[in-house]
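Intended use. Records like the one below are meant for learning the mapping from a protein sequence to its folded structure. Do not use them to infer anything beyond what is encoded.
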Amino acid sequence: MLPGFSSGIRVGGLRSLSLSGTPITTATEDIAYAGFTVTATAGTLPYTYSLVGSWPTGISINSSTGVVSGTPTTPGTYASLSVRVTDGVTATADLPSFTITVSVSGATRQAMTLGAYVNSNGPRQSMVPGTYINEA
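Structure written out for the chain above:
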């Protein structure tokens, strides 16, 4: 987890639209992401929140509340991510960019292990080359 981010601009001494939140930077494939919420201040209502960058499939943002949540389905490292708020007069503010790492789930790891068998309703097949199991 990263320390809280905050982003904003001052115009002519007045406080303008800003965005704050603390991204959760780790997740596991096929397990609900811990998520986080971003909060906009100043600017002109209404606020609309959006994701910036190539986020893991399965993670989304509630455009009205700023809640980032979901279940990532593809492991990997996702860099240069951010969250943006756009206010009622189209001013924007972004969180500083960050990276989320989605690790492989235990179920996927087991299925990828040579000699491991996947529990299914069909016949099992060996993943060891040259080895066959006939359970049909």
